[in-house]
Structures are given as structure tokens and as C-alpha cells.
Amino acid sequence: MSPTNDRSTTARAAETGGTWVTARTGAGSYRTEIAAGGHAVVADEPATGGGGNGGPSPYELLLSAIGSCTAMTMRMYATRKQWPLEEVTVKLRSGRRYAEDCANCEKQSVGIQQIERQIEMKGDLTDEQRQRLLFIADRCPVKQTLEKGIRVITVE
Question: What distance in Å separates the CA atoms of residue 118 and residue 15, rounded to the nearest whole number?
Fold first, then answer.
């Protein structure tokens, strides 16, 4: 029974605040359609990795989650404090290629070991405000989740 049709699983997810994100791919293609919160996103591998380059790779989506969470966390804090933060740009890179890691995942431990992050802020902020916002950037819930470690379990 699929998780989206199982009432007890759906009820359990609703109780914990979790909703299902769905990723679906077909035969002969790495293109994956993702449904999340009523939104559609496409993931794919670049042509050099055997994909059609129809969207970001899974590692790029992970970096996007960290980057967007960082920017939103900083924005929320600055708004609450009524600080003049006009714009936040977060850049991330890992140096890993998903297709290469996927090809080797059966025989060795793979994955991103380190992520480099650059944060640019625009606005008439004091040095103290900038330092505090950089501290707040490290409080991003997605970053904290990954640093603590996370288990992924398959449920029926």
C-alpha cells in the first residue's frame, strides 16, 4: 500500500506535522518529477552524467534547501528586529557529483563531506548586525538537521 493512500500513515504524518513529498521517475530517464506542498519541481542529471539536464541534480537540490533556509532564517530575524536588510544572497558548493557518487554507492560510502557557503548581505547594517546575522545563518533548521545527522527509513 502506498504511503499516500494509507490512512494510518497519513494520519501519523499529519500528527507529526509531516506531509509527503513525492518523487517519481520513469523508465529510461533520470528526470524526476517532484511534488511538494502543491508545487512541482523537476530534478535531473546533467547530460555529462547521462541525464537530460532538465533540472537540478539531487545534490544541487540539497544545496538549494540549505541556501534557501539560510536566507529565510536571516530574513525572518532581520524583519523581527526591524533591521535594514535589503537582500541576502547565499551561494553554496560541495565539489561532489551526484552521478559519480550514485555509480559507486553499492560498494563504498559516498556523500557530501563538506559544503562551502558564501553569504552576501545588502543594506545599511552595522558591523554588529552583520555579525549577528551570520550567527543566525548557522541556526538555519535545515543546516542544523544535517549537522545532527538524520536517518531515512522506508515505511510501508
Answer: 37
The span from the CA of 129 to the CA of 53, in Å, is: 40
Q: Are 39 and 69 in contact (CB under 8 A)?
A: no
* Burial readout 34-45 (b: 16 or more C-beta within 10 A, e: otherwise): beeeeeeeebbb
Task: Judge contact between 42 and 24, C-beta under 8 A.
Answer: no
Please name every residue paired with 22 in a beta bridge, in sequence order, or none if there are none.
35
Alpha-carbon distance of 24 to 37, in angstroms, equals 15
Give per-residue pLDDT as tens, 107-133: 777 677 789 999 999 999 999 999 999
CB within 8 A of 101, min separation 6: which ones?
A: 59, 110, 111
- For the segment 76-104, the average pLDDT, to the nearest whole number, is 87
pLDDT at residue 76 greater than cutoff 70 = yes
